[in-house]
Design brief:
heterodimer, A: alpha/beta, ABC transporter transmembrane region fold, Rossmann fold, six-stranded mixed sheet, 64% helix, B: alpha/beta, 3 domains, four-stranded antiparallel sheet, 10% strand
C-alpha cells in the first residue's frame, strides 16, 4: 500500500521535472519559430499563437520547476525515512553490530543519505533528460528526419555513453583513491595518537615525512581524477556544439527553410541542457550504489541468534538459571570452552578473571546476543534457546558493557528502562544507584549530551545501574560496573551496588576483587574455562590466580 | 571570500582556472554571433566550420579550467594538511584536540572542493560575462539591452532578498534535518542498551513518527523557501519572453533584421545564466568556508620551537627534581605539587599510587613533554629546560602506558627512527620476548601491523613496545609506564623478566601496579594526588 503511494509520488516528481524541461524546450522552440516566421513578415494574426505560447511556456517552466523541487524533496525524505526504518528493523535482532566501531555506525547512517541522492541526483534527472531528449528528437523528426537522426546520436552520446564512462571511471578512481585516503588517515592517526612514542624516539620528522608523502600521493590521484572529470565535461560541450553544427549543416544542405533550420538548431542546443549533467550523475551513481550495496549487506546479515518459529512462553516466578558445559565462539576463536554455573533465586555470583577470559561473553550468551555452540542454558528447566531472545532479555538483563547515554533528558535516559514506572520508582532507582545528589543538583530535565559528555565516567555507570535497578529483572546482570573508574569511585560504586543487590538474583562480572567477600560464589575464568570457584575466603586460602590478584590489589593500595 | 584561504591559493593554477572560465564564457558570445549569422543566412554555410572551431575551443578551455581547478584544490588542501600535520609536532600528549585534528585533516578538508572548483570560477564568470553580453546587446539592439539591463540585477537582488527572509527558516530546517540524522545515529549507537531493556522495537515506531513529523515540517518550510527559486526562474524565463515577443513584432514591421533578432534570442539567456549558476553553488561553498575556518583556528597558536643548546655528558646521569609543580591548562588542581626527588645513577625506582595521582606526569616531565610551572629538573647537573630535547630523548628508552603501534611493519615499529639494522631489531625483539610471536606472523618482521594490519594481543603489543626500548642500547634512562597493565599472568611474567634484563646498568623509573614489577625496584615511591611520600 505505502509502496503504491510512494511510487505515485515518485511519478509526480518525475512528471514535474520532465514538464519543466519540456517547457524550457518549448519556450525556445516557439521563440525561434516566432522570430524566424516574423522575419517573413506575415499577418500579425499568424504570430498570435506563438506569442501566447512563448509567454505561457515562460511562466509554466518556473511553476513546473517549483513543483518538481517540492515533490522531489518530499519523495527523497520519504525514501530516506523508509531506508532508515528498514535498516533499523534489520539491526534490532542482535547481529554482529555491537563489535562495530562508532565510525562504522556513523558511516552506515551516512549511507542512508545516499538513497536520497539516488533519487534526486540520479534517477529523477535521468527521467527528465530522457523525456526531453525523446521529445526533441520527435520534434526534429517532423521537421527533418535526417536532423533527428543526428540529434538522437548526439543525445545518446551525451546522455548514455558519457555517464556510463564517468560511472566506470569513477569506479576505477575510487578503487585507487580509497586506499590512498585510508593510508593518509592512518598516517595522520599515527602522528596524533602516537605523538608520545614518536617524540620519545626522535621519529616525529620521519612520521611527518611519511604523512606528507601519503598526502602527495593522494593529491596526485585527485589531480588525475580532476583531469578525468574535466575531460567528461569538455566532451559534453563538444558533443552538444558539434551536434548543433551538424544539424544546421544538414538542414542547410537539404534546404529545410529558415524557420525549420532555426527551430532545429535551438531545439538541439537546448535539448542537451538536462542531458549534460547526467555525466556528473554517473560519477555520483558509483558512490550511491556502493552505499546501497553496503546497506543491503547489513540487512542480509543473519542475526546472531536465529528467530524462533514457535517460542515457548517464558517461565514465571523466581528463576533458577543453570549453565552447563557452555561453549561459545567468536568467529573461529573459542570464547567459552565449557563453562558451568548455577544461579538460584536470591543468590549473588561473581565472575572474575583477566580481560579476554570470556566473562562478558557469558553475559552475552545469557542475554542471547551471541549463540550457543554447545552445552545448555536452562531457566527453571526450560532451554533458553526455545525462548525468544526478547523474552530471555526480559528475564536476564541489567548493566551491559559500554552503557549508552542518549541525547535526551536525564529523566528519559532513565525512563527507557521503565516506561511505565511511577515517579517514586524512578526516585528509588536513582537513590539506590546513589545518583540522587546528581539529580538534585542538575535536575531531572537536564539534557545529556553526545556520549553523555555532561556525565563523568562514574555517573554514566551509576545511570546504567539505576536503569538496571529500575527495570528490576528477575536475574540481574552487571558487566564490569566499575570499568574505567578511578579507585575511589570504583570502591564507592562497588559498595553501593553490593548494597543495592542484596537479596536479588545477581551475576556480577568484574576484574576488581574488593567487596567480593559479600557474594555467595566467585567463579574465576581464564581463557574461557573455569579455573577456580568458591567463596572469597576459600579462594584466598586456596592460592592461585585469585590470591595473586588480591595480593596485587592490596599491594598497590597499601604500599 | 575567505582572506586566509585566498592567501594560500596557488596563484598560477588559480589564474589559469579563472582565465579559462572567463574566456570560455566569452566564447559563448562568439558562438551566438556565428550561429545567428548562419541561421539568418547572412554568413555562408562554411562559417559552420568556424563555429566548430569555437566549440572546440570552449571544450578545450573547459578542460583546462577543470584541470587547473583540480590542481588549485589539491594544492590548497595539501598545503593546509602539511601545516596541520606540522602542528602535531609541537603538541604534548596531553593536548585534547587530537580527534578534531584527525577528522579535519582527513575528510574535513574535502569540503573545500566545491568552494575552490565550483564557486570561485563561477564568481569570475558572473562578474564578466553578463556585462559583456549587455554591452554586445547595446550594440545590437537598444530596447533588448535595456530590458536585460533592468532585469539582470533582479536576480542577485531577489536572490539576496529572498535568501535573507528565508535564510533563518531554511537554516533552522537544515539544522533540524541534521538533528534527525543525529537522532537516528543516537538510537543506532544506543541499540545494545535499548535491546537490554526491551525498548528496541518500540524505538522503531519513534523513528517512524519523528521522521514523519520532520517531513511535514520541512515541506511546509520548503514550500516557502523554494518560492525564491521560482521567482528567479520566472525572472529569467519571462525576460526571454519579454525580449522575444517585441523582437518578433519589430521584425514584422521591418524595423529589425533577422540576424540581430536571432543574436538577441541566443544571447539574452546568457546574461542570466552565470548569476544563477553562482547562486546555486553558494550553499555548498559555504561548507568549505566553515572547514577553512576550522583549519585556520587550529593552526593559530602554533608556537615556533626554540633551539636549546644544553647537552648531558654522562651516559647514566643523576636526576634531581627540585620543587616541581605541574599544572595542565584548563585544570584547577595541579598534577604534581612541589615534588623534590633525587634518583641516583643506576637506581631503579618504582612509582606506585592510584590512577590519576601524577605518576605518568612525572615521567612526562623527565621526557620534556610537559614543562614544570614551578621548580626545575636537573639532569647530571644541567637544567632540563636548557637541554636540546632531541638529543636528550635519544638517551631515553620510554614505554608509554598505551604504546601506539604504527601502521607499518613490525621492524618499523621496533626501530621508529629507522636507524637500527635488521640484526639489532631482531636482537631487541629477542630480549623483549617478542621474537617468539613475531616469527609466527605471516611475514615475520615485515608483517604490517597497526590499525589495519595484523591483530596483536595486548601482551604482544606491550612486548613490541619493550623491544622499542631495547632497540636503544645507548639509552641510559629507562622510563616505563605500567608495562604490565592489561596483561594476563603469562604475558606479565615474560614482560617482567624482559624488563629486569633491560634495567641492568641503567637508571630506571617504572610506574608499577603489580607486585612482581614493584619487586624489581631498589626503591618504591608512592604518589598521592600529586604529592610524593
Amino acid at each position: 500500500m505505502t509502496g503504491v503511494v510512494w511510487n505515485r509520488r515518485l511519478l509526480v516528481a518525475a512528471l514535474a521535472g520532465s514538464a519543466a524541461d519540456l517547457a524550457g524546450l518549448a519556450l525556445i522552440a516557439s521563440a525561434a519559430w516566432l522570430i524566424t516566421r516574423a522575419a517573413q513578415q506575415p499577418e500579425l494574426a499568424a504570430l498570435s499563437v506563438a506569442i501566447v505560447a512563448v509567454r505561457a511556456f515562460a511562466t509554466s517552466r518556473g511553476v513546473f520547476r517549483y513543483a518538481e523541487r517540492l515533490s522531489g524533496h518530499d519523495v527523497a525524505l520519504r525514501a530516506q525515512a523508509a531506508t532508515r526504518e528498514r535498516l533499523y528493523d534489520a539491526l534490532i535482532p542482535a547481529g554482529p553490530l555491537p563489535h562495530r566501531g562508532a565510525d562504522l555506525l556513523s558511516r552506515m547512517v551516512d549511507d542512508t543519505d545516499a538513497v536520497q541522492d539516488l533519487l534526486v541526483r540520479c534517477l529523477l534527472p535521468a527521467v527528465a533528460a530522457l523525456v526531453t531528449g525523446v521529445t526533441a528528437v520527435v520534434v526534429a523528426a517532423f521537421l527533418l528526419p535526417l536532423a533527428a537522426v543526428v540529434l538522437a546520436g548526439g543525445l545518446a552520446v551525451a546522455g548514455v555513453l558519457l555517464p556510463a564512462a564517468t560511472a566506470a571511471l569513477a569506479r576505477r578512481w575510487t578503487a585507487r583513491l580509497a586506499p590512498a585516503r585510508a593510508d593518509l588517515a592512518a598516517r595522520t592517526a599515527d602522528l596524533v595518537h602516537g605523538s608520545a612514542d614518536l617524540a620519545a624516539y626522535g621519529a616525529t620528522g620521519r612520521a611527518l615525512g611519511a604523512a606528507a608523502a601519503a598526502d602527495d600521493r593522494l593529491a596526485g590521484l585527485e589531480r588525475g581524477q580532476a583531469r578525468v572529470n574535466a575531460t567528461a565535461l569538455a566532451a559534453g560541450v563538444l558533443v552538444q556544439g558539434l551536434t548543433v553544427v551538424i544539424v544546421v549543416a544538414v538542414a542547410k544542405a537539404l534546404d529545410a527553410g529558415s524557420i525549420a533550420t532555426a527551430v532545429l538548431a535551438l531545439v538541439s542546443l537546448v535539448s542537451f541542457e538536462p542531458v549534460l549533467p547526467l555525466a556528473a550523475a554517473g560519477e555520483r551513481l558509483t558512490g550511491v550504489l556502493a552505499a546501497v550495496r553496503r546497506l543491503r549487506e547489513i540487512e542480509a546479515t543473519p542475526p546472531a541468534v536465529p528467530a524462533l518459529a514457535e517460542p515457548l512462553p517464558r517461565p514465571e516466578g523466581p528463576l533458577t538459571v543453570v549453565v552447563e558445559d557452555l561453549v561459545v565462539r567468536h568467529g573461529d576463536r573459542p570464547a567459552l570452552g565449557g563453562v558451568s554455573l548455577t544461579l538460584t533465586p536470591g543468590r549473588r555470583v561473581a565472575v572474575v578473571g583477566p580481560s579476554g577470559a570470556g566473562k562478558s561473553t557469558l553475559l552475552s550468551a545469557l542475554m542471547r546476543t551471541v549463540d550457543i555452540v554447545s552445552g545448555t542454558i536452562t531457566v527453571n528447566g526450560v532451554d533458553l534457546r526455545r525462548i525468544s531472545a526478547d523474552d530471555a532479555r526480559a528475564m536476564m538483563t541489567g548493566l551491559t558493557q559500554d552503557p549508552y547515554v542518549f541525547q535526551t533528558t536525564f529523566r528519559d535516559n532513565l525512563r527507557l528502562a521503565g516506561p511505565h514506572a511511577g515517579e517514586e520508582d524512578l526516585e528509588r532507582a536513582v537513590r539506590e544507584a546513589r545518583l540522587d545528589a546528581f539529580a538534585d543538583r542538575a535536575g531531572w530535565d537536564v539534557q545529556l549530551g553526545e556520549d553523555g559528555r555532561t556525565l563523568s565516567g562514574g555517573q554514566i555507570q551509576r545511570l546504567a545501574l539505576a536503569r538496571a535497578l529500575l527495570y528490576d529483572p528477575p536475574v540481574l546482570l552487571l558487566d564490569e560496573p566499575a570499568e574505567a573508574l578511578d579507585e575511589t569511585t570504583a570502591d564507592a560504586l562497588t559498595g553501593d551496588l553490593l548494597d543495592a543487590t542484596r537479596g536479588r538474583t545477581t551475576l556480577l562480572v568484574t576484574h576488581r576483587l574488593r567487596g567480593l567477600e559479600e557474594v555467595d560464589e566467585i567463579v574465576v575464568l581464564e581463557d574461557g574455562l573455569v579455573v577456580q570457584r568458591g567463596t572469597h575466603a576459600e579462594l584466598l586460602a586456596e592460592g592461585g590466580y585469585y590470591r595473586e590478584l588480591w595480593d596485587a590489589e592490596n599491594m598497590i593500595r597499601d604500599t | 571570500m575567505h582572506r586566509d584561504l585566498v592567501r594560500l591559493l596557488p596563484r598560477r593554477h588559480l589564474a589559469v582556472c579563472l582565465g579559462a572560465a572567463v574566456v570560455a564564457g566569452l566564447l559563448v558570445l562568439v558562438q551566438a554571433e556565428l550561429l545567428a549569422g548562419v541561421l539568418s543566412g547572412r554568413f555562408a554555410v562554411g562559417v559552420l566550420g568556424w563555429l566548430a572551431v569555437v566549440i572546440a575551443a570552449r571544450g578545450a578551455l573547459g578542460w583546462i579550467q577543470g584541470v587547473a581547478a583540480g590542481a588549485t584544490a589539491s594544492g590548497v588542501k595539501s598545503e593546509l594538511r602539511h601545516r596541520l600535520l606540522r602542528r602535531f609536532q609541537g603538541m604534548s600528549p596531553a593536548e585534547t584536540r587530537s580527534g578534531e585534528l584527525v577528522t579535519l585533516t582527513g575528510r574535513g578538508l574535502d569540503a573545500l572542493d566545491p568552494y575552490l572548483t565550483g564557486y570561485l570560477p563561477s564568481i569570475a564568470v558572473a562578474a564578466v560575462v553578463p556585462v559583456a553580453v549587455i554591452v554586445r546587446l547595446f550594440a545590437a539592439d537598444l530596447t533588448t539591452a535595456l530590458i536585460v539591463l533592468v532585469t539582470v540585477p533582479l536576480i542577485p537582488i531577489f536572490g539576496a532578498l529572498v535568501g535573507m527572509t528565508t535564510k533563518a527558516v531554511t537554516e533552522r530546517q537544515w539544522a533540524a534535518l541534521a538533528r534527525l540524522g543525529g537522532h537516528f545515529l543516537d538510537v543506532v549507537r544506543g541499540l545494545p542498551t535499548l535491546r537490554a531493556f526491551g525498548r528496541a522495537r518500540y524505538q522503531a515506531t519513534v523513528i517512524h513518527d519523528v521522521a514523519g513529523q520532520h517531513r511535514s515540517a520541512t515541506m511546509r518550510t520548503l514550500r516557502v523557501a523554494f518560492l525564491s527559486s521560482l521567482v528567479l526562474e520566472l525572472i529569467a524565463s519571462l525576460s526571454l519572453a519579454l525580449v522575444a515577443v517585441p523582437v518578433g513584432l519589430r521584425l514584422l514591421s521591418g524595423s529589425l533584421d533577422l540576424t540581430t533578432a536571432l543574436l538577441v534570442l541566443l544571447l539574452a539567456p546568457e546574461a542570466y545564466l552565470p548569476l544563477r549558476a553562482m547562486g546555486t553553488r553558494f550553499h555548498a561553498a559555504m561548507e568549505g568556508v566553515t572547514a577553512a575556518d576550522q583549519a585556520f583556528a587550529l593552526l593559530e597558536g602554533a608556537e615556533p620551537a626554540v633551539s636549546r643548546p644544553g647537552v648531558v655528558t654522562e651516559r647514566v646521569p643523576e636526576i634531581r627534581l627540585e620543587g616541581v609543580t605541574v599544572r595542565y591548562p584548563g585544570r584547577d588542581d595541579p598534577a604534581l605539587i612541589d615534588v623534590s626527588l633525587t634518583i641516583g645513577p643506576g637506581e631503579r625506582v618504582a612509582l606506585v599510587g592510584e590512577s590519576g595521582a601524577g605518576k605518568s606526569t612525572l615521567l612526562h616531565v623527565l621526557l620534556g613533554f610537559v614543562t614544570p610551572s614551578e621548580g626545575r629538573v636537573l639532569v647530571g647537573g644541567v637544567d632540563l629546560a636548557t637541554l636540546d630535547l632531541e638529543r636528550w630523548r635519544r638517551r631515553l628508552a620510554f614505554v608509554p602506558q598505551r604504546p601506539h603501534l604504527f601502521a607499518t611493519s613490525v621492524a618499523g615499529n621496533i626501530s621508529l627512527d629507522g636507524a637500527a639494522s635488521p640484526e639489532e631489531i631482531r636482537a631487541a625483539a629477542v630480549a623483549a620476548q617478542a621474537d617468539v610471536f613475531v616469527t609466527d606472523l605471516p611475514e615475520g618482521y615485515d608483517t604490517v601491523i597497526g590499525e589495519r594490519g595484523a591483530d596483536l594481543s595486548a601482551g604482544q603489543r606491550q612486548r613490541l613496545a619493550l623491544a622499542r626500548a631495547f632497540c636503544r642500547p645507548e639509552a641510559g634512562l629507562l622510563l616505563l609506564d605500567e608495562p604490565t597493565a592489561r596483561l594476563d599472568g603469562r604475558s606479565e611474567a615474560a614482560v617482567i623478566s624482559a624488563t629486569r634484563h633491560l634495567a641492568e646498568g641503567r637508571t630506571a623509573v617504572i610506574v608499577a601496579h603489580r607486585p612482581a614489577m614493584i619487586a624489581l625496584a631498589d626503591r618504591v615511591i608512592r604518589v598521592d594526588d600529586g604529592v610524593i611520600k
